[in-house]
Amino acid sequence: MSISGTDTAPARTGPAPAPDPLLVVRDLRVRFTRDGVPVHAVNGLSYSVAPGRTLAVIGESGSGKSVSSRALLGLLPESARITGSATFDGTELIGMPEREMRGRRGSDIAMVFQDPARSLNPTMRIGNQITEAVRVHADVDARVARERAVELLTLVRLPAPERRFFEYPHQLSGGMRQRVMIAIALAGQPRLLIADEATTALDVTTQAQIMELLAELQQRLGTAVVMISHDLGLAASYADDVLVMYAGRAVEYAPAPTLFGAVRMPYTAALLGAIPLLDRPSHTLLPVIPGQPPDLRALPEGCPFRPRCASSDDQCLTEPPLTEHEPGHRWACWHPEPGPGTDREEDRR
Question: Can you give the residue ranges of the ABC transporter domain (predicted)?
Answer without folding.
Answer: 25-272
